[in-house]
Amino acid sequence: MSGRIVTFGELLLRFSKHSHRRFTQGEELLGNFGGSEANVAISLATLGNEVEYVTRLPKGQIGLAALMMLREYNLDVRHVLSDGNRMGTYYFEGAAVLRNSTVTYDRENSAFFLLQPGMFDWHEILRGAEIFHTSGIAGALSQNAADATFEALRIADEMGLTISFDINHRKNLWKYAGAQPVETLSRMLEYADVMFGDVIEFEFLMNHPKIPFTATDTSYQMDLEPYREWFEDIHRRFPRCRKWLMGMRNQVDASHHLLTALLWSDGVLYSTRIYDIQDMVDPMGVGDAFAAGLIHGLGAFPGDDQRILDYALAASTLKYTFNGDFNLATDEEIKALMES
């Protein structure tokens, strides 16, 4: 088991409809909390890790409800700030048959959007921790949120923590004056020891044509050599990072996905099985489940990179079975799927 893990990012309120309805249909909205770094934190806590989640919430009833939810999942929230004016939200319209899902963000001027460097005592927060996890989303919200994230990364680096980073490129969020997504994400990645992303995010970051993953069943055979060359190019650009996890998904239709992943670790490329996922419940948070699975695996299976990758993929596959953003799969369930 890893030592204490700290994750940092914005908690969101998600709104959606029942039964694949469009937002133009009916009157009732479903609400639940989510957000990449919170998703990672809750998954890690479910797996038995000691986890602190750091964010900034609005004061009042909505912020209190969010804080109570985080406590329910056994997260340490002692350093959460509750002094903002509004909560960031997003609206998720689920996919159906051949219709894609849609996400609409409403995060401008949220408590986290207006974050400032110096608001958190990172030396106190990170004391005794082993891993610090965050993502590129904060860099997309506002210049101040990006600066606050760089502050956390810099102090985590100075204190000798292992830094875990998810690219999490959301092109619809980079709206502030002077926003430079490739440059900002690249600067953040310079601090990373462990990195996560899907093929599209790797393509965006490296300006490298993506390698198609066209599996329609589990018999698909991957040619690993182009990926090996790609990872070696990435490592030359970001030499500090020792482990790169790339997720690959082929969406056959709205409820049928093929999922696999690759892990490049200290010069060795690992591949794993392909899962054929049909009649899925909710795809949101699958990438965060990948990240949590790998972070947990670093402590649970030290030195066994193949097992770490197998575990991370099984964890993300089980996320498809839960409504909402959180992966609530237990360690026993993940191992049972991984070893089946």
Describe this structure in words.
- It is a single chain.
- The chain is α/β, with parallel strands linked by helices.
- It has eleven helices and 15 strands.
- It has helices at 36-46, 61-72, 122-126, 137-141, 143-158, 181-189, 199-206, 225-237, 286-300, 305-319, 331-338; strands spanning 4-8, 12-16, 30-34, 51-54, 56-58, 81-84, 89-93, 102-106, 129-135, 162-166, 194-198, 243-253, 256-265, 268-271, 275-278.
- Strand 13 (256-265) and strand 14 form a beta hairpin.
- Helix 1 packs across helix 9 and helix 10 (305-319) crosses helix 11.
- The longest helix is centred in the middle third of the chain and has 16 residues, at 143-158.
- The model has no long low-confidence stretch (mean pLDDT 94).
- One letter per element, helices H and strands E, the order comes to EEEHEEHEEEHEHHEHEHHEEEEHHH
> Beta fraction of the residues?
15-25%
Largest sheet: 9 strands, mixed
Give the C-alpha Rg: 19 Å
Structural class: alpha/beta
Overall morphology: globular
State the total count of DSSP E strands. 15
* Count of discrete alpha- or pi-helical segments spanning 4 or more residues: 11
Estimate the mean pLDDT confidence. 94
Report a brief summary of the structure:
Helices cover 34% and strands 24% of the residues.
